[in-house]
Amino acid sequence: MNRFLPDRFTQLLIGTVLLATFFPATGSFEHFMHIASNAAISLLFFLHGAKLSREAALSGLKQPRLHLLTLASTFLLFPLLGLALKSIVPDLLTPQLWMGVLFVCTLSSTVQSSIGFTSIARGNVPAAICGATASNLLGIVITPLLVTLLLHRHHEANGMSQVLSILLQLLLPFVLGNLMRPWIGDWINRHKVIVNVVDRGGILLSVYAAFSVAVAQGVWHLFPPGQLALLVLVNAVLLGTVLLATTYGARALKMPRGDEIVLVFCGSKKSLASGIPIASVLFAGSGAAVVLLPIMLFHQMQLMLCAVLARRYAARKESEQSGEHPQQEGVPAAATR
């Protein structure tokens, strides 16, 4: 039953949203929170850069097809599906929530959960490390460019300046952190708890700052209550379609099962850790808060569904190793039992 409950970080996010709803930052405190959240975001990406192993990133050259397929799923298939859904049922969600859904489609894959689920499923863990790392690194540049393209933010007077802002606020600290890795990498590896606190604390700070501004602008009146259920439905269609496409696509290409697992888990994830900082830079006021709702929901949905899939993959592997009849080829692990 616990696997169907929100993970602890999602619970913290919900608590932060409620805190901002009932006790929003206002006046000079709002200005302070804006500065603090920007500083926290830059520090967060500095630490991400310092943690990145260049060897892990370059090891992807050994399996170019797998990683190109993963990136295509993340940055091509997802946006195309999002645009298709919006064109088919444009009135299903409010324009603001459709903007949030399309924003989700532009995000990079996760790192920690993609690798974790690949390991549980007995997949190709080194390839997952490389693929997830490359996706996050490229996402710093690709995501703002896709947002500019998909959401037509280049029509706004400050559209390109926002792209430059995200490069300066996110990419520059990331590069500096990676350049300093030879001197601070060991310290970061020894103090992972502190790094995780800074990492998650920066995200929660950004959420609080964004929702504080949004609450003052009446964010909760921007869409009817039923929109939340419809948003869950849209997220489910996106996630389910990509999971099926990556599963059957890998089997059609006769990929080894370990590589199939990498494509399924790395190609279907969307990073909350990258999405929240990027949204806080690209969107302002209530727009940022509404954009955050779809990715917060998608985050929990992908964790719950992929946890089930990972266990099914592992059970299938154990069944084959013990000499029992393997699951019929061509049937996704999620469809058995």
UniProtKB/TrEMBL annotation:
Name used for this protein in its record: Bile acid:sodium symporter family protein
Record field: compositional bias (Basic and acidic residues): 318-327
PANTHER family linked to this entry: SODIUM_BILE ACID COTRANSPORTER 7, SOLUTE CARRIER FAMILY 10 MEMBER 7
A Pfam family annotated for this UniProt entry: SBF_like
Keywords: Membrane, Transmembrane, Transmembrane helix
Keyword Membrane appears in the UniProt entry: yes
Transmembrane segments annotated in the record for this chain: 12-29, 35-54, 66-85, 97-117, 129-151, 163-180, 201-223, 229-249, 261-283
Region (Disordered): 318-337
